């Protein structure tokens, strides 16, 4: 168990430690967190733990139940709603970010995809999640629409938690990483419409993969928005 150090405000350290444990799966979905237990394991008083848990609840990584705070279990319906938001928001954000990305930025995105592939070959899925997260975060942060960025940031932690829980439940082949590379190739062409279409296709394929495993009888056909040009 990690422990806090004196150089940084304690509740921020506790927040970062527990957040990493949640997103890595070390603290699994539905796990109940004990304020006193965390304080003892981290070597701090209960006050910074209480504040950190409040922050994690604001991020929706923890949710309140009659038995106390637990790691958000994210029922399948909520995960599907997260995907629907991502399809709409991140696809358009990628389109808007094309003009903001430098050639060096695009090379860095390409490196993230390559590092994801290498990590997948080693079956180091924690690193796969980390590189995939950097890929999507960089594209989202380059969007020039501040309100859109803020909206995506509000859902950021839920998206991370959903991704971590999916990897914990369903290991998949690395074909989706080729979809990341297809986005990069569209960025190299500086083609906003193609970037948006490929990002939408990628996230919708992720959604379909999850739906086929969580609701096999409800697996969808092609997303009509992809052919409608939305």
From TrEMBL:
Database matches in Pfam families: FCD (PF07729), GntR (PF00392)
Alphabetized GO MF terms: DNA binding; DNA-binding transcription factor activity
Database matches in InterPro entries: GntR_C, TF_FadR/GntR_C, Tscrpt_reg_HTH_GntR, WH-like_DNA-bd_sf, WH_DNA-bd_sf
Region called Disordered, residue ranges: 211-230
Keyword Transcription regulation: yes
Signal peptide stretch: none
Record domain HTH gntR-type: where: 8-74
Classification via PROSITE patterns: HTH_GNTR
Keywords: DNA-binding, Transcription, Transcription regulation
Entry protein name: GntR family transcriptional regulator
